[in-house]
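Narrative summary of target 7.
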Amino acid sequence: MQTEAHTRARGQEPQPIRYVGRVTPYLFLAPYLLLFAVFVLLPAIYGLWISLHDWDFLLPAKPWVGLSNYTELFTPGSRDFVDFWQSMRATGIFTLFSVPLLVTVPLLVAMLLNRQFPGRAFFRAVYFAPYVLGVAVVGVLWRFLLDPNLGLVNYYLGASIPWITDVPWAWISLVGMTVWWTLGFNAIIYLAGLQDISPELYDAAKVDGANGLQRFLHVTLPGLRPVLLFVLTVTILNSANMFGQSYLITRGAPANETRTAIMFIAETGLRSFRMGNATAMSYVLGLVLLAISAFNNRLLRQWRDS
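Modeled conformation, tokenized:
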């Protein structure tokens, strides 16, 4: 209104708002939709086609087998039944123990970094710094540190702990290293969410006599509900797709106990050249993760709306 009045004061008629066609939003989305179709949708459809064949890179003939690559994964005694579900079990173990730590520890770190203290920017950078390292760098570093014979950890502990050659130590190593490596990302997400919570809510809670725990339960957590939903979903998906840590540090030892599903799928497709079987495994894993994500989203959405 003020702009229109100023325009009329200068002796100019306001320009009418031009009609925007229905196709305009799709034109803005077109670059993303094009990339999505080329790099996500088409490979997914092609992968589904491969999973319905006995697809071997080394053989010219790739016969149609239908759903047999899928049914074999659920048939006891088949070639991949034991190894595949053992790798799924390993993936489940890693996800079960890593996700709670990757959801809670970064939240505690973010709450500390959200306070006012000297050197806060420096410590924020320190906690986030490991996340910028590649998995190859992190894997080689921790394999050197945790080596049972030559590792610095056992040297300074004066012990001979099989960090990467026996369970449960191998799981402790993989989970601990992953938390150290990736907590900075979740902490930054939490920190952004904490800064969106109005300080007036904390002041009002203090006036009402709420202690620190009560302010956390009734102010911080409700304010972080959308952030918690995002962090939990992304963390579950990332943990379930763990590959590099196990491949570089434990190499699936001992006796393939730490060989995750992604690691077994890669071995089946890229080392044994059985791409049809490997693609079927990928889709089964994807459906499991889709179901878990849907359940998680529904559960947290009910909590958010309550």
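The chain has one domain: 80-305.
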